Amino acid sequence: MTSSSEMWKKKAWAEVDSGREEWVGLLAEVIRRPSDNPPGDTTDLTAYVSQVLTGAGLKPTIYEPKAGNPNVVVAMEGCGPGRHVILNGHLDVFPVEEPEAWTLPPYSGKVRDGRIYGRGAADMKGGTTALLAVTLLLKRLKVPFAGKVTLTLVSDEETGGRWGAQWLVENCPEVLGDAVLNAEPSSPQALGVAEKGICWLRVTTHSKGGHSGLSPLDNAIYKMDAAIQAGLKLRGKQGHAPASLQAGLAKSKELLEAMEHGKGNSWVLDSVTLNVGTIQGGCKANVVPSLCTAEFDFRVPVGITTDELQAEFKRLLREQGLGEADVDVEPILVSPPNHTEPDEPIIQMLARNTEAVTGHRPHMHTSYGGSDCRFWRWRGIPAGILGPGPHGIGAADEYITIEDYLTTMKVHAATIIDYLGVSDQ
Amino acid sequence: MTAKTDASRGTTAASGRLAQIRRELLNEIEQRRDEFVELCAEVVRRPTENPPGDTRALADFVAGWLQKQGISSQFVEPQPTMRSLLSTFNEERAPSLHWMFNGHLDIFPADDPSLWKIPPFEGRVTDGRIHGRGVADMKAGTTASIIAYSLLYRYREAIPARVSLMAVADEETGGIWGTSWILQNKPEWLPDACMIGEPCAPDAVRVGEKGISWLKVTCHGRSYHGSLGMGQNCILQLAEVLLLLRDVTKLRATIPDDLKSVIEGAKSFNLNEDTRGRASLFEHPSYNPGVIAGGIKCNIAPREAMAEVDIRIPFGWTPEQILSWTRQRLDEAGMKDVDLELPPYRSAPNYTSPNHPLAQIIARNAAEHYGKPATFTMTTGATDGRYFRQQGIPTIIYGPRPQGVAGLDEYVEIADFMAVLKGHTCSAIDYIAQTAKG
User: With an 8 Å Cβ cutoff, is A291 touching chain B?
Assistant: First the structure.
């Protein structure tokens, strides 16, 4: 850590504070462009972001492997050879299920009482825009960092990343880099280093069908009932995380317990959970349904593999009396649990800079949600998350505090400067 | 219970002029057999799948055929495209008895026609069978009623009763725009006795049916990110509710005395493969969760999940009682927040006593025209007969044995069709002879 690093960090922080209106305005503009996924069309938002980048003198490249899901990649070369840091955020957001439940319109980007509201404000337009803003800020201040910064803004995270980060990592070697910074919602007290895996399974049950008055037992909905009971037996199964994560995990649990939605639920961090997100079966009350389909969202803790989970689920289905002809299980998305060791330099720098900005050293956080970091971690590339504290994700009146948003900017700007280093000239 | 009938003697209540008409008509039916079978095939050739339930082409065809016999008819179409046909004679003479033939024109959807061995709407007649979607449920029965009605019309001067034909749209989706609508809005069509050619069997007479209660169950949740999948999920709750409601099949029927022997008979009487081994259905409710839906996305906890269950109710229970039983079970299980709704499509179990003259006469005719003693039976399904019985009108079902109704390759034996045609014609004559005060 050189004195010039410290100087540039202070300059960057001053720019964050003095440009507060501009950065908040930028986030509001991003929130005002809906990108609900599904359907996940981010064309409008991507065009806006590209325009902002181009206006700053940067040259974004658009990769659109799937129509309507463009990804933006923009590289800034530094003053000489060095490390390559990737900034990653997603542009798509959860769909608004119930607009009437919002007290503020979901795409308003409205600022009130130090908060900014709107669908995706927390997950993760706040974090994504912070990374975009940091990029603009580094460019504007002409920070003389070494190496390279690549900003990747992706359009498919909420439905699994197939056309977003995963596609970029598999198809564009320039996004691999040496380390990844992500600003998914965490909180400035929590530095994300580990996350649960995902196992989305489409379960389909079959029966012969027929008329309701006659055939009360061979019924696809009954069989789905049995499949759900099998799934519930996996809920609560505990994983065993490595020792290096245990202290942070304990803190993550403590924090979750302190939250309104987390009270009594901290077990989810190191255990299997199940959400049955959709169910659909039959066509008419008086016809025995021949088909029922449900989507099971299992989250798998570090310490249990997704293969183990699927094998166990299938065993439990058999135990419930469902044979091969009764039930099909088809993976929709399988994403193993993953983590970055806390002693990696990028993680240590994130932690130190968070402490420098907020006065608190964050703990090494295990998250129950998945993030795009996994695509890099699976390749052995360290990735850390630091983002604003979320409020109302997936529900009404989602918001973040402006303070968290600006803190996120500051921490990432400083970490980039530390990780890449700056020349003394 | 076997009807006390001597088939060989062809016992009939008709005497004098009516007995003579009866003999003439039985002769005529045999002579015009091919023509009548062809008429049934023509009816099959006019698809009336419900949904959507457009019966206009068929109602027009039937009206045209009646017109050729010199019979006028009228249409009602309370719901566009769902056209029902009404015709009556001897109304002005206001006799003491009003006889009704009721049948429906709409049919179950054919599913994928390419899966059928014989195209579902070709109306092919081969190997002693009439083939096609809807021929069993219930175009053969309705055609038999139409023919019987037209034959009786020719002898209207000698018949001391008003006779009506009600060929309706919309039975398959609940009868709201068919029989039910007509009886509620046009009370002048309420008869004193009703016969329906719904599928049954030529040697069986259906006197009653279970009730229906379609229950809509809705569970509410809070949407949150699926990664917090720790339990409060309304699809999981709905799954629990559906498991719990399965106990409805343990409720016991209270069977009226005059139905006890019928239920015993129905238990051993098999319509076809589908109904074998289902005897307990007459003593308990049946339960079918038919539709389930909820959630918008795999990784969001659903805000709402809904199921529609079809409960068929045995004697001793009403839909309202089933609803309160369900409410109580859910309350006991701590699920007061689950919404229950009883859609208008419901009915209590209903029957006409097998001791009623209408039942006795139809059973005697079944035996006479099919050559086998007839059995009184019940159905686990529902027919438009319930709308008449709800008004206190004796109503009996007599129709052909259904083959392939739920699936593909539906057909009816011509022998069944002929027995049903004769049964409808002669039962009307016999009942009028025995009941009308002249």
Answer: no
Share of chain B above pLDDT 70, in %: 91
Domain boundaries, chain A: 3-195+337-420, 197-252+264-334
- Between chain A and chain B, the number of residue pairs with CB atoms below 8 A apart is 196
Question: Domain residues for B21?
Answer: 7-209+349-435
Find, in chain A, the residue whose alpha carbon is nearest to that of B239: A225
Residues of A in contact with B293 (CB under 8 A): 279-281
Residue B108 maps to a domain: yes
Q: How far is B295 from chain A (nearest CA, A)?
A: 4
Residues belonging to chain B? 438
Instruction: Single out the residue in B296, B325, B346 at which a domain terminates.
Output: B346
CATH architecture of A3-195+337-420: 3-Layer(aba) Sandwich (3.40)
Contact A279 B287 (CB under 8 A): no
Work out the average pLDDT over B344-370. Answer: 95
Listed range (A290-294, B210-214, B404-408) with the worst mean pLDDT: B404-408
Q: How many Å apart are CA A139 and CA B177, to the nearest integer?
A: 71
Are B225 and A278 inside 8 Å of each other by CB? no
Percent of residues, chain B, with pLDDT higher than 90: 75
Average pLDDT over residues A217-231: 92
pTM across the whole model: 0.74
Mean pLDDT of B130-158: 97
Q: A58 and chain B: CB distance < 8 Å anywhere?
A: no
Measured in whole angstroms, the distance separating CA A336 from the mean position of its chain's CA atoms is 14
| B266, part of any domain | no
Mind telling me how many Å the CA of A28 is from chain B's nearest CA?
A: 23
Chain A, 319 to 348: residues with Cβ < 8 Å from chain B are 332
Please report the residues numbered 85 through 104 in chain A whose beta carbons come closer than 8 angstroms to any beta carbon of chain B: 94-95, 97-98
A153: part of which helix (H) or strand (E)? strand A148-154
Query: Among A208-222, A347-361, A401-415, B77-91, which stretch is predicted with the lowest mean pLDDT?
Result: A208-222
Instruction: Confirm whether B151 is domain-assigned.
Output: yes
Statement to judge: residues B280 and B132 lie in one domain:
no
Q: Cβ of B249 and A216 within 8 Å?
A: yes
Cα distance between residue A391 and residue B393, in whole Å: 64
Q: Which two tokens stand for residue A107?
A: 């795409």
Within-domain flag for B267: no
Do residues B126 and B16 both lie within one domain?
A: yes
What is the domain class of A197-252+264-334 according to CATH?
Answer: alpha beta
Inform me whether the C-beta atom of residue B249 falls under 8 Å from chain A C-beta atoms: yes
Contact yes or no for B242 and A286 at CB 8 A: no
Contact B406 A285 (CB under 8 A): no
CA distance B204 to B2: 9
What does each C-alpha distance from B369 to A91, B366, B372, B423 come to in angstroms? 76, 5, 8, 7
Alpha-carbon span B398 to B421, nearest angstrom: 10
Q: At B180, is the secondary structure helix, strand, or coil?
A: helix
User: Are B339 and B356 found together in one domain?
Assistant: no
Q: What are phi and psi of A187, to 5 degrees?
A: 155, 150
What is the rounded CA–CA span in Å between residue B204 and residue B338? 43
Is the Cβ of B289 closer than 8 Å to some Cβ of chain A?
Answer: yes
Mean pLDDT of B71-77: 98
Q: Choose among A219, A268, A369: nearest Cβ to B230.
A: A268
pLDDT at B8: 36
